[in-house]
Amino acid sequence: MRIALGQLESGADIRANLAAIDRFAAEAARDGAALVAFPEYATYEKKKVDATFPAVAESLDGPVCRELAGIARRYRIALVAGVVETSDETGRAYNTLVALGPDGGRLASYRKMHLFDAQGFGESTFIKPGPSTDPAVFEHGGVRFGLMTCYDLRFPELARSLADAGAQVLLVCSSWVPGEHKTEQWLALNAARAIENSVYVAGICQAPPVSVGRSVLVDPMGVVEADLGLEPGVCSVEFSLETVDRVRDSFPMFRQRRL
Known about the structure:
259 residues; 14 strands; alpha/beta; six-stranded mixed β-sheet; Nitrilase/N-carbamoyl-D-aminoacid amidohydrolase
């Protein structure tokens, strides 16, 4: 299968963000990708999460998700993107990933469970953690994908639960906050989750200055198959489930683990 990583430079202009998603989805479809994935907060982003996030939040049946579904239908491509979803709590929203099929139908959604309260950044002030710890997986084109969001990458238990649920590719949609050694950690953690679970990991990130960029596809041996660098853009890359099977045969960790 061929998938595309869409590295955005999202801001507070929702229409501009949706237009960028449309352009990159069109490019990914022209390049033969069956799925295009975009970062966390793809449709609305700022340097820090503030009270405007719950103010712009919508339901997953609202105008923003309807527009994303229209893009998926228009280009006949599966699409994953981060949105701000309304919650039942005044002043807090959900940080949600939505996966849409080529027909615009919803394949899965995932509300971020590990909120980034670190580096002086208090995401939980305005964002509510997802109430479910069930792994969010969906199938498209014979491939099983698992959904993770940004800070989740530091919690290996979630990646393992997705692999246990059959995921062969982890989509880690992120807006990785910059800082000392943060780019190195981003790259190392994407590789670690791939190696320890014998899966592909697609780490899709916002571009600088709000984030670190460096969206990557890492294979099950930890080899970086694609790296988008620092600028906004979209990159399509081929991967093979035969590689997953071969690595799992060579390193049968799932049969050998005792915990």
